[in-house]
Amino acid sequence: MQILIRENEKLKAELAKTEAENKRLKEVNRWIPVSERLPEVDKDGISPCVLIVDSGRPRNWGKATYVNYRRGNNGFWASEAITGEPTHWKPIVLPVLAKGAKE
Phi, psi (5° rounding) for residue 26? Predict the structure, then answer.
């Protein structure tokens, strides 16, 4: 019986870790409303590249665009036209290389 109790406690601890990681990943991967916050910028006032969804209609509604954010009056900017106001953005998460893999 003691073995089952210890095993149950281990499983509960693993479940708690998995649930915490799931919550963290949901936060990292969610679309962030621009009304909530904007991307962080470096000392030059420019963010790393992010994805945005703009409100342009009808052609670009719901289309994600790869852009940078520039602090100040410039806002979001990209190599292609943004047809509407950006509504949401998310960081681009780079893949993690396996240990020993070459870039």
Answer: -60, -40
